[in-house]
Batch of 2 targets.
Target 1
Amino acid sequence: MGAYVITGGSKLSGKLKVQGSKNASLPIIAATILNCNKSHIKNVPDIKDVHVMIDILTRLGADINFSGNELTIDTSKVNSWEVPENLMRKMRSSIILMGSLLGRFGKAKVSYPGGCEIGPRPIDLHLKGFAALGVKIKESHGFIYAETEKLKGANIHLDFPSVGATENLMLAAVLAEGRTVIRNAAKEPEIVNLQNFLNKMGCRIKGAGTDTIKIEGCSIDDLKPIEDYTVIPDRIAAGTYLAATAATRGNIVLENVIIEHIEPVLAKLREMGCSIKSKDDKVELWVDGPLKALDSLRTLPYPGFPTDMQAPMMALLSTAEGTSIITETVFENRFKHAEELRRMGADIKINGNTAIVKGVRKLTGAAVEAKDLRAGAALVIAGLAAEGKTVVEGISYIERGYERFAENLRTLGAKIENLD
Ligand code: EPZ
């Protein structure tokens, strides 16, 4: 699985260009299936999850070239609607392929997405939405078979503003007959990015970024190749580097950020006592005095505080003065990093979906293990702030979502080495 060896105590400093967004890239790669043509996409992060999606589309018949963060995908020869089970299991978010396979072929066969380290992560909202669009769903022996004669536009109300369900239903609805309205839709920036990509392809979608998205169905002949599309920067990667800088009391400038997308995180870092200056696509963070605890940190759907930043912030709050209360409202079981942080001397008590984090003067290096992508980033942050050496096992989780993570941190002055 590989590990990082971190020697704590160096203050991060310098400049870093933020990678393209993992969570914007994955649905956009799925969307390329719809136009049976070429798509050229820029600023795609070179991370494991993108390579899994590339492997899946290649197995379905696509011709793909990926180099220098530029992705060229030709889906004209895609001739299968069955997602290979072994690849599906590698990444649960490959469920996003259902929508575009249904749009292109009227059918899809996927295996039940592997459970995830952060909770059961059901897909009932996806399947209920597909059924509303006229899709027959059959589940047997761990596979989901979805089929329809013709996708028909529908009014869909999501019980929860699920990011994946919103994206999947957009992908299925663009080629449906008539209009689809998705209410209580997720409002994340990655949804807006997907709408912009699909509209550039010739689809007619409005409302992404609000809780109501309207999709006018069109025909596959209306869809065009995508000459050039640039993926938005990764707001969670940006937040992670800022939290790491705050934890080491350092000073960095991040480039290629969209300030509005990271505002929820900047607000909490300021509340802790970080100094932050932003201009155009740059943000600078430095720490002058002691960092204070947060009376309340509550994860919520966008534009609330992002659940993906909960673990990195828990690591940072472990070194702040005072007691912070973290409430995780999006996932059921997203505190697994707490027990690993305790091994480093953090004082954290978990009570259901609430974590009580009492800041300590210093964390101490230890051998710890990443259990999911963002938990892994949190352990690295704790290791950078800790006294002594930390070994973080399970870094393949981290490499799923962070491009050149250890290399970037080294550029910023961190003492972090790969242990193969
Ligand atoms: C996306 O996951 C992101 N992944 C996650 O990022 C992110 O944490 C999450 O949205 C919330 O922002 C990608 O975009 C690839 P959801 P997704 O559907 O779509 C429940 C990372 O670290 N739910 O919004 O799976 C679900 O159990 C990853 O980059 C249902 O009950 O998230 C969860 O409790 C982790 N039924 C909540 O909704 C459903 O049918 C939010 O899930 C679907 C979801």
Target 2
Amino acid sequence: MSFNTISVVGLGYIGLPTAAMFASKEKKVIGVDVNQYAVDTINAGNIHIIEPELDTMVKKAVDGGFLKATTTPKPADAFLIAVPTPFLPIKTKNSIPEPDLSYIKSAAKSVAKVLKKGDLVILESTSPVGATDQMAAWMAEERPDLTFPQTHGEDSDVRVAHCPERVLPGNVIRELEENDRVIGGMTGKCSKASIEVYKTFVQGDCVVTNARTAEMAKLTENASRDVSIAFANELSIICDKLDIDVWELINLANLHPRVNILQPGPGVGGHCIAVDPWFIVSSSPHDAKLITTARHVNDAKPDWVVEKIKLAIANILIMDSKKLVSELNIALYGLAFKANIDDLRESPALSIADQVIDMHSGVVMLVEPNISKLSKNYTDGLLVDFNIASCEADIHVLLVDHAEFKGQRPSTGQIIDTRGIWK
Ligand code: SAJ
């Protein structure tokens, strides 16, 4: 079987770079997204997200006629589904977040309409264990005229696999090519077909397992990182009380050949590490004790930072009894969920900014070099340049270690550095 036409469903942070990679190898790529703006932008040779190198790749792919975007699936030989898997709305304060598979369902049902015998459908979205089987069941419901692996095994008309994406935002293009890939086919033939598709551009190894193990492998990778970051965040709180520089401490501990502690920060954000561990917890709530605790430790960190800001305000007022709270300017540096990107999803920095805007009666300044405009929920004028904030603020809170903030730091005022770059 040769896969000449590849359809990528979901043209976001993973789907669009993946589509561009296939197109760069001169495959015919049909990108599908429900967002008309994204589709129009891509068809004009532009991109609607920020990711290094992606703009030139997409332009080349579109100009060369290899990539075309559309809002409804068209026939292809292989379909890669890279749609979001968020949480369902949380019922009560203490309930465990449950995965929302509605985007996968709707992608699977719409792809099913154009499937033909011999096609391959790969789920790339990070998913709870069992989601690939569920996706195959939804497609089978839609297409009783075709056979699927859950009922016909190796003889099925359509092949189905889970091959989770594992790339790091900000470094996606290189990692798409170089990272090893976990290939979780529902049968051996499904895995074999998936390897053939990925070998178009993947230089890393394609390691075969079953779909459920592939699903769990991806969740495990992100939960492992979450637990490690929680350890660093917990250390930062302990060190703050003990008056120890946590970054120096971690550097020292990491000199040990078998210790590798990650970095503390204002919390864990993004659409992956702050979300995926809950998919393990929701499947095994009584057993996932450490994973649950890590999530709570990381989720509590933004509130701890806000308490530090309140303390800094109180200290200034104690030192200068004539000063009013409303006369204090607070600058927050960085809003994205991590360095050198524009992505605000689940951003702890943004949640801190929201709390500070709500509580503070004086001026709040936000500095975010990767964003030129905030959503309409924010009043105009909140976003300012680094130079204005660094001259005018009484309290400077470093939230994201963007390249622009390294090598320059405010020279006056109190500094709360959650990333250890302004020491
Ligand atoms: N963070 C820290 N300290 C650290 C490292 C990260 O506080 O030492 C914070 C970041 O600031 C950010 C959050 O954690 O708020 C997540 O950032 P990240 O760089 O660790 O990860 P993501 O979410 O950008 O990408 C992760 C990656 N997973 C792993 O490294 C195991 C990536 O490979 C996955 O493909 C991606 O999730 C995904 O899509 O699942």
